[in-house]
Amino acid sequence: MRGLLQKDFYMLSEMKKMILVILAIAFLLLIANSGSESFVVSYLIFVAAFLTLATITQDEHSKGVQFLMTLPVSRKNYVQEKYLLGIVMGGGAWILAAAAALAVTSLRGKSINEEFLAQCVIYLPILLLMLGLMLPIQFRFGGDKGRIAIMAAVAGGMLACFLVLKIVDLSNLTGAKNFFENYYRLIFVVATLILLAGFWISFRISLAIMNKKEF
Fold first, then answer.
1. Which of 24, 90, 108, 139 has its CA 20 to 30 A from that of 55?
2. Which stretches of the chain are DSSP H helices?
């Protein structure tokens, strides 16, 4: 597992110019707009997730997977490492972006916004959701087809969320809104537990896909 992580981090270091540009854009957004803190956190988490997918694409294009299967590395190890890499990359991006946003806010002489802190916490389950959806698709389709399938899935998810919110807004479900406002902490905990279960199911699906592949 450690060797696989080292391989992927070395692979990502080859993309350091692109990563530095991404970090520069995030920093410019922070210092140019005082309302962009939460966007920067989500932006870097999203980028980290796609960088994880990029390592799978690189392995496939360079026939790295076939080579790894000749070593004492199992298919389960390979899938486990990709999920761990996604969590490490996304978690690191989350810490970096949140710390930078808090530092810039403090330098501006402003107090920490509780809404921003709440949004930062929400982004962690969103990271798991993104990885749980994207990794099985990438393992199944790979390369260009995988990117197209992921974009379609993201667009479909965003459309579904928009429709649900629109229906709730038009229906004027006062009782549901009051329930959410009163029990939002409980709802968040339950949703997180469901998401963790879904993340485990996503891993099992990815492993099943990997086991069926022929190299």
1. 24
2. 2-13, 16-32, 37-61, 64-68, 75-107, 114-141, 143-171, 174-182, 184-212
The residue assigned the tokens 């962009």 is 36
Reported for 143-151, long-range contacts at CB under 8 A and 24+ positions apart, including other chains, are 143/57, 143/60, 143/61, 146/53, 146/56, 146/57, 147/53, 150/53
Length of the chain, please?
Answer: 215
Condensed to tens digits (0 to 9), the pLDDT of residues 136-165 reads 988 888 766 666 666 666 666 556 655 655
Q: Which of 77, 195, 188 has the alpha carbon at shortest distance from 130?
A: 195
Residue 127 contacts residue 94 (beta carbons within 8 Å): yes
Residue type present at position 70? T
CA atoms within 13 A on the CB side of 57: 14
Q: Is the four-CA dihedral 114, 120, 125, 130 of positive or negative sign? A: positive
Collapse the DSSP code of 67 into the 3-class scheme (helix H, G, I; strand E, B; otherwise coil) and give the result.
helix
Alpha helices in 33-74 (DSSP H): 37-61, 64-68
List pLDDT tens digits, range 77-94: 999 999 999 999 999 998
Going by C-alpha positions, the residue among 210, 214, 196 that lies closest to residue 74 is: 210
